[in-house]
Each structure stands twice: as structure tokens, then as C-alpha cells.
Amino acid sequence: MGMRTKWLGAALLAAGMVGAAQAQTVKVGIIAPFSGPFAHYGTLFKAGAEAYVASQGGKLAGQNIEFVWRDEGGPNPANTRTLAQELVVKDKVDYIGGIVFSPNASAVAPVIQESKTPMVIFNAATSDITTRSDFYIRTSYTLWQVTVPAAQHAAKKGYKRVVTAVSDYAPGIDAETAFKAEFSKLGGQVTESIRMPVRTTDFAPFAQRIKASGAQAVYVFLPGGPPNLGFVKAYQENGLRQAGIEFLGTAETDEFDLQKFGDGALGLTTLFHYSGARDSAANKAFVAAVNKQNKEAVINYATVGAWDGMYVIHKMIEATGGKRDGDKAMAAAKTLKWESPRGPVSIDPNTRHITQNVYLRVVEKGPGGLLINKEVQTFPAQPDHGLAK
Predict the structure, then answer these.
(1) pLDDT at 148 over 60
(2) Which of 15, 98, 191, 351 has CB 3.0 to 4.6 Å from 31, enough for a Cys bridge?
(3) 362 and 291 share one domain
(4) Mean pLDDT of 55-79
(5) How far apart are CA 267 and CA 269, in angstroms?
(6) Contact 178, 144 (CB under 8 A)
(7) Which domain holds residue 263?
(8) If you average pLDDT over residues 337-342, what whole number do you get?
(9) Are residues 89 and 157 in the same domain?
(10) How many Å separate Cα 109 from the centre of its chain?
């Protein structure tokens, strides 16, 4: 009897050791701005990613998760490529996520292609990024995706003359091109295409040009952060609203800055894939999970991009049993369909970009007098029109 007990104990110990061996550590490198004027993105990516892992009990598909954080700062493709190389070669990460700026995302393509490291883009929004490597997936949005509905909205309102005002870099050019293509197709005319330097802080001259244009609306794209505040302030102070020029934006009324605008933002219209005020069970669960992990985190498109990005990484880890297998991971990711905090979504197997609803949102006062982006119309299941065209 003693021998039998001893044998059982040894067997159980061996089984436990096998179980422990199976629970390995999966390393996820996250590249984001953690310094400079866009550092809030890094904070929000971190909040969304960590909240997702915590919501799953601290492990994904039974595997321990180790994050390796790297600072892309601002638009700097060469530096970001070096960061990706270090993550793959030195840190030996299994997955990469994050990246805010499109030029930075494009620069990483050779690194992930050669190493077969799946990379989930949490933000960078130029359409053609995912065509540059077979190992890109994107859980944010593209400018074509949110801009085609904006042009459709303008045409439905009967506008014939619209000015576009965009930041002068790849996503801005995408936005300008998309609006012009769709609006022209619907019988409208873009009377002027204004491109503003990415680092400009004085938007008054551009606002004056828009006011003098005779346009009925201005379609705007700016990178998140200080430029949003600057442009909306110029729109307000130069009397564009009073001149009857409707504001049509994308992320300019982002929740990160929304309260800073004050009541002057009431009525501003944007078309975007997410609102923190979305009334759904999935969004309420997401908000609760992020708040539990980080009470200071803002609930916005960057947080949800990271949350859904980690969902995709979770499913890739599940499909590969935690082993490093880029091809198998990508094959699994291409079939994904789920209920996101933003609504029903799926990964398009051809573009490896997220298909999702786009919402017409109007700034209103919500509970407690706080400003919210109220969803008032849905453009369902929008693909990336930039790659679908």
C-alpha cells in the first residue's frame, strides 16, 4: 500500500511537471509613442492590452503573457524598423502589436515578413499597409473606411461644394482621395483640397481659406492629439459654423480631448467606427474591464483598438497552442468574427483588415453634463474601401 501511494505521488508530480512545461510564456512586443506630443496613445494601448489579458484571468489560451514595450515617439520610420528588429532578434517576441503612425507601420514590413512574426496594427490607418507583408492584421480602421460614409452623408444632405482639409501625410492623402472619389461619384464637387503640415499649430489661416471658399461643408482629417484641439478651435473662432459650413470629421472629437472643447463642440459631426458612449453589453463589459485595470484610462478608439488587437493575438495563440508558428497563426486570424465593443466585426481574409460598422456621431451632452459622441446613424459592415475599390 505504501509503495502504491509512493507510485501515485510520483505519477501526479510528473503530470504536474508536464502541465507546468506546457504553460509557457508568449512574448508580445508593443510599439507605441510613450514620449512626445502623442504619448497618450502609448498609455491607451497599454490600458487596453493589459485590461484584455486581465479580463481573461491573466493568461491567454492557458499561456503566460509577457509584454515588451517600445517607444516609437513620433513619425520616424527608420527608428521604428530598428525597434521591430530588436523585438524580433534580441527579445524574441512571438507577436508585435501597436503602432500609431502609418509611415512607421510600413517600415516594419520587411522585418515581420522575413521573420514570419504576426503583427496586429492597433491604429495606423493608411489602406495599403496590409499589402506590404503577409503578416499584418489591423484592428483599427482606415481613412477610406470612415470617409466613404462621410461623403455619402454629405451628398444625402444635398451638399454640392465641399472643401477637404487634411494633414499632409499618408493617412491624410488617403482621406482626401477617398472623399473626393466618393463625393464626385455622387454628384458633388471638392472645390479646394487643403493639405496642412503635420506639425503645424496655427490653423487660423486654413480656417480663413475654408470660410472664403463658399463651401457648404469641410471634411477634416488630423492625427489625434494637439492638432484636433487646434483645428476645432480655429473652426469655432473664425466663424465657420456661423457661415453655414458644416464640420465633417473622423476622430477630431475623440474622447481623449472631447471635454476640453467645451460647449462650442456641441453639434459637431464625425463619422467613425467607435464611440465610448456606445450602448451595448460588449461595450459596457469593455469599459468596466478597462476601468478596473486603470481608472485613469480614457475609453476611446485607441483603447478599443488595443483590446481587439489582443483578442486577435489571443486567438492566434489558441490556434498555435502557444507555439511560434506565424503561418498557422495568420491562417486562424483570417477566419475571425466576433462581437467587439464597437459592434459586430470580422477580419477580411483578403485584406487582413477589420470589417466593421461606421457611425454618424454628433457631439451632445450626456450624463452629468459631459460631452459624448452620440451615435445617430449606422453604416453597417464597412470594408476598407481603399483596398476593395
Answers:
(1) yes
(2) 98
(3) no
(4) 97
(5) 6
(6) yes
(7) 144-272+358-388
(8) 98
(9) no
(10) 18
